[in-house]
Amino acid sequence: MKAEILTIGDxxxxxxxxxxxxxxxxxxxxxxxxxxVHMASVADDEEAIVKAFDDALTRADFVFITGGLGPxxxxxxxxTFSKYFGAELIMDEDVLKHVSSFFxxxxxxxxxxxxxxxxxxxxxxxxxxxxxxAPGMWMKKNKTIFISMPGVPYEMKIMMRDIILPKIKSENxxxxxxxxxxxxxxxxxxxxxELIESWEDNLVTKNIKLAYLPQPxxxxxxxxxxxxxxxxxxxxxxxxxxxxxxxxxxxxxGYENYGEETPSLASIVxxxxxxxxxxxxxxxxxxxxxxxxxxxxxxxxxxIFKGAIVPYTNKAKHELLQVDESVxxxxxxxxxxxxxxxxxxxxxxxxxxxxxxxxxxxxPTGGTAEKxxxxxxxxxxxxxxxxxxxxIFGDIRQxxxxxxxxxxxxxxxxxxxxxx
Amino acid sequence: MKAEILTIGDxxxxxxxxxxxxxxxxxxxxxxxxxxVHMASVADDEEAIVKAFDDALTRADFVFITGGLGPxxxxxxxxTFSKYFGAELIMDEDVLKHVSSFFxxxxxxxxxxxxxxxxxxxxxxxxxxxxxxAPGMWMKKNKTIFISMPGVPYEMKIMMRDIILPKIKSENxxxxxxxxxxxxxxxxxxxxxELIESWEDNLVTKNIKLAYLPQPxxxxxxxxxxxxxxxxxxxxxxxxxxxxxxxxxxxxxGYENYGEETPSLASIVxxxxxxxxxxxxxxxxxxxxxxxxxxxxxxxxxxIFKGAIVPYTNKAKHELLQVDESVxxxxxxxxxxxxxxxxxxxxxxxxxxxxxxxxxxxxPTGGTAEKxxxxxxxxxxxxxxxxxxxxIFGDIRQxxxxxxxxxxxxxxxxxxxxxx
Lengths: 420, 420
Fold this sequence. Notes:
The structure is a homodimer.
Chain A: E1 2-8, H1 10-13, H2 20-32, E2 35-42, H3 46-59, E3 62-66, H4 77-84, E4 89-91, H5 93-105, H6 112-115, E5 119-121, E6 125-127, E7 136-141, E8 144-149, H7 153-171, E9 176-184, H8 189-195, H9 197-202, E10 209-215, E11 218-227, H10 230-248, E12 252-256, H11 265-276, E13 280-284, H12 290-296, E14 305-311, H13 314-319, H14 325-330, H15 336-350, E15 354-360, E16 375-381, E17 386-392, H16 397-416
Parallel strand pairs in A: 1-2, 1-3, 3-8, 13-14, 13-15
Antiparallel strand pairs in A: 4-5, 6-7, 7-8, 9-11, 9-12, 10-11, 15-16, 16-17
Helix pairs in contact in A: 2-7, 11-16
């Protein structure tokens, strides 16, 4: 099966937004064993859209289209769709009901423009958009299926996961594909590749491909394979991961299973705490609330997360978290002493089982010869024990914040597991 | 002048990397007044590349091609280039010298594969790649210029900035282009479009295009135009923005100027505080540290940001921020009373000029008939005044957090400006 991804919208062509929808769709299709043969972005322009449709018709079994479904005048995908398939636009009562309730629920009037969102090309299959007002559409021309979705990522993704991908799976006999991704922290891409070189060289004998997927504070290793025997594919990959574990176990913090989202370190830690019925509190200085937002972004956070303090000044560290004033006059706020006191005191304040504290120089300024930009101290504490660790990351503020968060979360994970 | 951007490489099509090269090239060309009419990504496959070249020939004056120039077997762009233009590959002595010195400098042997990087289609203009070994190429077919560059971003960008863009500028009489984007909060895309309908209809008379760019908690309105007289373009857009301001002033929180990045609400508020030498503290419940992380993500945050507390439990709201216990037993934590007390008390605790507090039901569970998921209370406080506002957003946790943050930041902005 071959697919094509088409993005419609001037905002892509003028470079105003990065095309993350196409990347996500490509990943999902690839996981299912559908090969993407072409990706294109065209303007909100009828002629350009029709030319792209015509080209896709000759190349692909499926065309995934995002964008141009908004209610405003610049969005012409639906009109063009209707024309291309020779199908007049008719009001879909179910969609109209959904659109109306969407506005009514928010205490807003349902206008003519809103109502027009329920117009669908005749003969098309509506794809319900539970997070928005622009429905998706599924149409067939010759042997090619055209699927039109809104460009808003969280609307598109839910439609794909809940409706479109299951429908494609059930209607087609796709080859078996199997992936598993090993999540590592604490070692860079090139050091990792040297460490696992001979293991990696041997993968080819089992028809397994390896991809290194680095991001700040973590390297993901994706093992993928395809073939006829589903059980064998899984067995081969599981065996290789066991061998890999023997080499780099200390760096592995989790796994991404086939067809699932990459679990974040925060979600892995949350899950551990939930299983143990334990709780957490944070004191964040240089990460400034970012780690807290990772935990609270997860549904059900209040079961395990008691809260955080971001003491961004020395005064706040002292007054709100009782760090000794002598710490600031001797070793400074970016120090073992400071993070240890922060971790111990935030834990007591929130009466949590565990606490994590972070203090560092995020940059771009504020570094010294002794403590360059990127210097970060991290501490973890329980009632019985406090541990502190020092890191020197890089020069870029945003990367230092991400690295600090990922390293801190992995330290916390190991601390909860009593492996440090 | 019209351009097309073509990316060659399997890694884009399987979703392994996000296509940031195309975004960057689009931005640069757009700034010069060159319109991008098409973007595409194809595999390392001769047939697909030739089809893309043929299509581009009919549409574009310039085709910017990245990728597929590496020395390994999977990279076939150069071979395809040579075939497409009927030009044999010949060794370029200057490039060979550069490639050789590149490896010698790094203490490496110059292999046959490396030497082949200096092969160039006859008649093509070499574009020097000072950061790598794969040279760029500039070829013409009919009236279309094809420019092939390596996919490595920092190699490609330097070639564009130093050589390609100046060459295009000097050889062509380009039209002027002008954009300005109006940033709004507090009104949805469709309500906004109705409010400004007659203004929008009139834009065509001044050759101005309008685009709606919605994201959670904000709609950006981009006005763009092109023509001969640079000053007139700017004047036309500025005049229309003045007229727009008369209609929707209350929703406008900022502008994105031509060639600059979109300023975030947090950066706009930070700038206001910096100018006024004022400071801020936050009490975040449902946003859980997210707003704090937006402020602390900006370099120099400590000038204006004193800190935050994330009191994720009622106990923490009471013990750390002195919210009356009676609040929880009567109106609950998601209430006017709670956010007012949070804002007042966090301001006192950090001794800041302003404070912002947020308490809501982020979801997906925890809603009631009276307070559905998405109900959020936001308060702002100064020494003299406290104001609270209630919103009902939607069902999705992550979107509710984003919406809460953007609405809260805009309320704070207006509060600092004394416009509420």
